Amino acid sequence: MKFRQFVFLASFIALVACSISYKFNGASIDYEKTKTIQIDRFINQAPLVYPPLEQAFNDALQDKFIQNTRLRLAKNNGDMELAGEIMGYQLTPMAVQEDAFASETRLTMTVRIRFKNNKVEGKDQEATFSAYRNFDSSQMLTDVQDQLISEMNKDIVDQIFNATMADW
Question: Which structural domain, as residue segments, surrounds residue 128?
Fold first, then answer.
């Protein structure tokens, strides 16, 4: 009888003491060292300017880091720093037809980042990320622009998050 109680107690302690943690967001952060991130505003420096683009991108970027990490946003002197600019926002005709008109148009967005990790050496980087979406040339850009921007922002923000937070 005492042996059963001992086995039960030992099993219970083993189950409580052991835990396995899985993270599916790809972040690999040592929260003991790194507690804050400073995300500077990404200014739109693209030749073609769509005013809502800058705010939408900055909001999407901050939301990604807030929702997928335990890092707090810092105005200055963050343990990690992320800065950059929107460098490109352009339209390109695609799929030219026999009448020399394009049947499809590609909207491309390009963002340059500078990432600095003030707590872990060797993690700093500069990179350029881009995303594009095609739409039918019979549609007006103004009719599809907001949806396309939302999709491209998600793609680019995911690329930035994976490049800076994941330790693949």
Answer: 23-165
